[in-house]
Amino acid sequence: MAPTSSPDTSMRIDVWSDIACPWCYVGKRRLESALGGFEHADDVEVVWHSFELDPSAPVPPVETSTTALARKYGGGPEQIAAMQERVSETAAGEGLDLQLGRTLHLNTRDGHRLIHLALDKGGPELQGRLKEALLDAYFVQAQDVTDRAVLTTLAEGVGLGATEVAEVLESDAYDAAVTADVEQARAYGANGVPFFVVDGRYGISGAQPTEVFAGALQQAWSERRPVLQRVGPAGTTGEDAAACGPDGCELPQG
Q1: Which of 69, 63, 55 is nearest to 144 (CA)?
Q2: Closest CA relative to residue 224, chosen from 13, 35, 1
Q3: 82-108 pLDDT per residue, tens
Q4: pTM recorded for the entire structure
């Protein structure tokens, strides 16, 4: 079922992304920058959804992302490293210090399952903290986020309990939820990430500039809470017509 927002609740932004996707981290920062300048930001909730760019990636990892990308696309590690450097430079403009040359080619499904656990246990706020912790661990710290000890430490660090984390990691809990997220993204026509849906109506594909997110926020908000437009005879706003008030009624003009 597609996510929706009710006019009587906070405006919702649904985001599909992967933990091992640098543009997802950049897009997250740009969305946050837009929200930072949005006067109704306190009435906006952000919900994160799963998307696996490479479901066949190994657990545990056996090579770096640079090596894996070079094998997949050809051109050699040097060409991939140069591409990664350009991405890192863009990310630096958003305050991110991505260590793309050190990141590992790995499976992200367990991390996604914990992101669903966080949403269930603490709502979007807790989920957002875990999402940030996972992205930082993978891209900035170059950690192995398939390692259950690493995942447990990250999850506990944002407020989840060790027992509930272990119960998820030792079972297939939330596996169906991850699959459903991916299917919903496909239904929207999203074949890559990040992908943002603002208030269930506006789709934004990729790590667009901050001003694109800011414009979508303003547009969606104004449509949820329309401003009353006064109307009257041609050339007027209707404010000149006779009316009654607490002090009596106006006399007809002319």
Answers
A1: 63
A2: 13
A3: 999 999 999 999 999 999 999 999 999
A4: 0.87
